[in-house]
Design goal:
Elements (H helix, E strand, L loop, with lengths): L18 E4 L1 H7 L12 H11 L5 E4 L6 H8 L3 E6 L2 H10 L4 E4 L5 H4 L4 E6 L24 H18 E16 L2 E3 L1 H10 L4 E9 L6 E10 L3
Parallel strand pairs: 1-8, 2-3, 2-5, 3-4, 5-6
Antiparallel strand pairs: 6-7, 6-9, 8-9
């Protein structure tokens, strides 16, 4: 893996605000064909992060590209973008949605073998998991039943280590994560992700995404911001 180059100074390199808003109507309007109801990362939220933490021409990474929201917004704002997506049908969709961006079909757990160019921002919303009643593994696109919550968090921490090596000094990792109420139990996923990733990169704090109506099963929705200092 190449060593990350020094990050050039950016006039928009400043912390995220404590709150951002999102609405159910905009989520419905933006949902692409085939996206399920668990997808809740809006373009306006992505734009707020990308505009504040990068400059035109910077490189934005999403290792869980999903339906391409991060890449499409980055492309629209004049940033370069690279994404990794496990499912081939979604890779094709993203390429149509974000022309000019690099979309790699692959497993995010192998990010160290898939991406080598230094990046300025990693913005992602990983597939979610609850600590209870969740045998399907989010990291295999829920296609296998070997899910285990502690292992899932460790894999996210390992991914963060790769991201740390890719980030330019001063670059940011921003993770969208939510706390979830499911089958009578609340999983503090956002706080567990903050602790796991915070062992790898300094945790700067959370931005609360304030919904007019929270997407189903969520009790709180957050952007968790980390930074590579050196």
């Amino acid at each position: 893996m190449t060593t990350a180059e020094p990050r050039r100074a950016s006039p928009s390199d400043r912390p995220l605000p404590p709150y951002l808003t999102a609405t159910a109507d905009e989520l419905t309007a933006e949902r692409v064909a085939g996206a399920d109801e668990d997808v809740h990362f809006t373009e306006r939220v992505a734009a707020a992060v990308i505009e504040r933490l990068t400059s035109p021409g910077d490189l934005v990474l999403d290792p869980f590209a999903g339906f391409g929201t991060t890449l499409a917004v980055a492309n629209r704002l004049g940033r370069r973008a690279v994404g990794v997506e496990l499912l081939p049908e979604r890779v094709a969709l993203i390429r149509d949605r974000a022309p000019g961006c690099t979309v790699i079909e692959g497993d995010a757990r192998g990010l160290h073998e898939l991406v080598a160019e230094p990046v300025d921002l990693c913005l992602t919303s990983p597939p979610y998991m609850t600590a209870n009643a969740h045998p399907h593994n989010p990291l295999t696109a829920y296609e296998t039943i070997d899910g285990e919550y502690g292992t899932y968090l460790e894999h996210l921490a390992r991914l963060a280590r790769t991201v740390r090596e890719l980030l330019r000094p001063g670059g940011h990792l921003v993770v969208n994560a939510a706390n979830i109420r499911y089958v009578g139990q609340t999983t503090a996923l956002a706080w567990d992700v903050a602790r796991a990733v915070g062992r790898v990169l300094p945790f700067l704090g959370e931005t609360v995404i304030v919904w007019d109506a929270l997407p189903h099963d969520l009790t709180g929705d957050y952007l968790l911001t980390f930074r590579r200092d050196a």
